[in-house]
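#struct-help
A.M.: can someone run this one for me? Single chain, 209 residues.
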Amino acid sequence: MMNLIQACSVVAQQRPADSLLVATMGAMFAFDRIELEAAGGDASRRPPGRISSVPLMGGAAGLGLGLALAMPERAVVVVDGDASLLLELGGLVTVATARPDHFLHVVIRNGTQFSGLGNLATLQPALSFAGLAKEAGYAHSEVIDSAETWAQRFPQLLSQRGPTLVELMVEPVPPRTGPGFELPEMPDLQFSRMGHELAALQQWLGTKT
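D.P.: on it. Structure tokens below:
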């Protein structure tokens, strides 16, 4: 089983420069860390084309689908969470019906809600997201449980005709709640950044046309 940083690092390192990346909250923080380290701490050098699906809880697949339909020539990678996707399972059917060609839907399967905080268990732990995607009509779905296999499979899965769903078996972040722990207040920026990132994406796309 891989950890969250390993799972997201594969996407960060291997996704095409002109691709679009949508991430839910857990993955958003992981990509922040990965990209900032790669940029030597300079936030202005982070790669373009990423949108944080916060606070659109459960809506990552729908947001990614809209981008894929608007720009069918670009690869779209959606890094979803298991707890997040459970809120809008109908999105699988919507994506499968639209059948975007270059659409890779990655589900971080860590079995927890509020990962790294209270680590509440997700409902229906035996539920197979890969199985649900197959039944919904995705062109391909599979489960991957090692970072090495994920790194090898990523370019193949991204290049094949989609939509494709990959369920990654990921270790939950150890919980931090307990005596002496005080949860910091979430800054307003985390709930407004999606709008800022969409504006930046629009500007970036405009410079490339």
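A.M.: thanks! The CA atoms of residues 148 and 158 lie 16 Å apart.
D.P.: also worth noting: The mean pLDDT is 87.
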